[in-house]
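Much of what follows relies on a compact textual record of a protein's fold. With that in mind, consider the following protein and its fold in token form.
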Amino acid sequence: MKKKASSVVSVCHCEHHPWLSASLTQNSKIEKFLGKVHKNRQELPQYYRLNGAVFLIGVDTFKKARTFIGKNTYAYVMPTARSVDIDNSLDFEFAELLAQKQSRKY
């Protein structure tokens, strides 16, 4: 299906539902949760997060908007297993483990 997108960004399912998140005060008191949760986690609506793998946008569009995500942005949904964000050595080890597991399949 062809779309007239101004940009495309890659996303994956959120590992933890955002409604089950809260901010804490400086002394660790829970202020409020993001949503009113009266359902099992499995019954909550599906949320997605940016995974940082793909950001596609025209140069002129980006210069004008100064952001990758605008009114006409579409998502490229990727599997969570291919959406590893490497910020530290533990993340890197996890990514290596997934890559080794994937290479054994072929």
Notes: Strands lie at 7-13, 22-24, 30-33, 48-57, 73-77. The chain is about 20% helix and 25% strand. Helices lie at 59-65, 89-104.
